[in-house]
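Minutes, project check-in
Item: structure for the 362-residue chain
Input as provided by the requester:
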Amino acid sequence: MNLPLEFFGVGGERMRAAGCDTVVEAKDLAVVGITEILSHLPKILSLYRHLIEEADKRKPDLAIVIDSPAFNWRVARQMKKRGIPTVYYVAPQFWAWRQGRVRLLRDYIDEALVIFPFEEQFYRERGVDATFVGHPLAELPHPTIERRDYAGQLHLDPSKTWITLMPGSRVKEVRMNLLTILDSAAQLGSYYEFLLPVAPTLDRSFLLSQIEPWVARTKITLVPDALPALWHSRAGIVASGTATVEAAMMNTPFVMVYCVSSLTYLLGKPRVKVPHFAMVNLIAGEEVVPELVQHDFNAQNVVSRLREILPDGPVRDRMLEGLARVKARLRVPGAESGTPQHPADRAAEIILNCIPGFDERR
């Protein structure tokens, strides 16, 4: 028996397409950096109050909060006050910094669903009921479009070596990262073509304005999707974040880069508690891909590290082996024994069982 389920909350176009009534736009909460959040705080607080008011009106049976810890732990606290069970999907990365905040999950969350294998032990050791459900990108199929067909669609030269550029998914990130990435591309020269995927959170016109001064020196093509670009590229220059996992899933060697404002970096660096910035390195427990962050992120360093991984040889081979290990570790536990279960299906099973009286209503 299928139960009718209704969803409302924070989301965007894809959440609406899946049937969620989005009372708050996710893009309005997409702010990066400590100093950047301060200027947006009044708007964020207004959206937060609106969401809680909707919860009071609709009285949900269960709350699911996803990522965005600064916003969502406050939502979880309000749900706890109202006696509404709460599941955290894509739990906060408190293991990376501000580990003392784990108590927020312990106090307000009934179940934490984590997408990185090392997180389950970290949270369980600190009293949080956490379950590793696999990473949503772990079962990504490789694109089926052939290289020549892809080149024809986007007017690329299939005889050249392609490099994918991924400067981030938010305007602030792009402004901080893209200039140095483009400088690196220009230094690499005309032997290469560069593919710049347009993230769903960015406007194509914004990216065109950013690359316009560089197109006379190098061939840069905006492409609609990241995965085919990564799959057919020899390498990538990828900003820290989910894009690094996408590159790993596509078996694309890359250099990880990232830059924030000087004040944000000064305030945040002492709080970082992990040995690596790149997620693939944290999953592997070693440096699989090079990390160029803040002052180390300059065109000379990017070009130098790329030239190590572009040609066939031991450096490239070691990176490819490391990326394969990362992909294996991100799969749903037990997936190797049969048809792999998608992480979202595993998460859905656990979430449904958290709804009070769900078994009786089926």
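Outcome recorded: The two ends are 6 Å apart (CA to CA).
No further action items on this chain.
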